[in-house]
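Query structure, 223 tokens:
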């Protein structure tokens, strides 16, 4: 395996990015970085402080002041673990408003690039292969049909103890797709050199193994 590599995994909400990326990190023994958790942590902080998600200036200023650390699946916000709170419905509904702010993305991307330069990583998000690491060693773009993505998100929330309405989850994902793909700062698009994988009828294990096969094949070609 290459001494240093960045595996970029992009795609819309519910396409399986995080689950697949975690499996790849475990199988290859490299670091997993959930970039979406960084925006969620910021949104959670703003929510807790009573800052409106529409107040872009205050949120950008907050992004400069807080400290976010990722330790595997742990998310530390100013030294406090918050990964159990950043996927609550109110954050799901509003994180895209935070993520579209250019000043916020600039700050987060700076931190993400620093993380990827230090060690081999698998990083998932919406602009990893197009903006954060356009020269990533390997790029993948995951997709799945809306019904399946809504089913996955509903199951995730139910397992965390939230009451969900499938129709609302589906509508939320539709809105998120529009917001992510039309925002001015680093919109969600597939990198021209990314391998697209439809995860609709595949398990996370199957997708992870498919990606690893591409990585191993590419690694051999370079040696």
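Result returned for the query:
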């Amino acid at each position: 395996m290459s001494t240093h590599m960045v595996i970029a995994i992009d795609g819309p909400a519910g396409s399986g990015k995080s689950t697949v990326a975690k499996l790849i990190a475990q199988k290859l023994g490299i670091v997993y970085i959930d970039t979406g958790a960084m925006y969620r942590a910021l949104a959670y902080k703003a929510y807790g402080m009573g800052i409106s998600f529409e107040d872009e200036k205050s949120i950008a200023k907050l992004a400069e002041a807080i400290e976010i650390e990722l330790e595997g699946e742990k998310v530390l916000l100013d030294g406090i673990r918050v990964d159990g709170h950043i996927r609550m419905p109110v954050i799901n509904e509003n994180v895209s408003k935070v993520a579209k702010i250019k000043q916020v993305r600039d700050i987060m991307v700076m931190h993400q690039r620093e993380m990827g330069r230090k060690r081999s990583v698998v990083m998932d998000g919406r602009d990893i292969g197009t903006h954060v690491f356009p020269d990533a060693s390997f790029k993948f773009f995951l997709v799945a049909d809306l019904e399946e993505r809504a089913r996955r998100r509903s199951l995730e929330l139910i397992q965390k103890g939230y009451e969900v309405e499938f129709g609302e989850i589906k509508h939320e994902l539709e809105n998120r797709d529009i917001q992510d793909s039309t925002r001015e700062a680093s919109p969600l698009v597939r990198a021209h050199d990314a391998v697209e994988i439809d995860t609709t009828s595949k398990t996370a294990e199957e997708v992870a193994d498919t990606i690893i096969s591409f990585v191993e094949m590419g690694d051999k070609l370079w040696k």
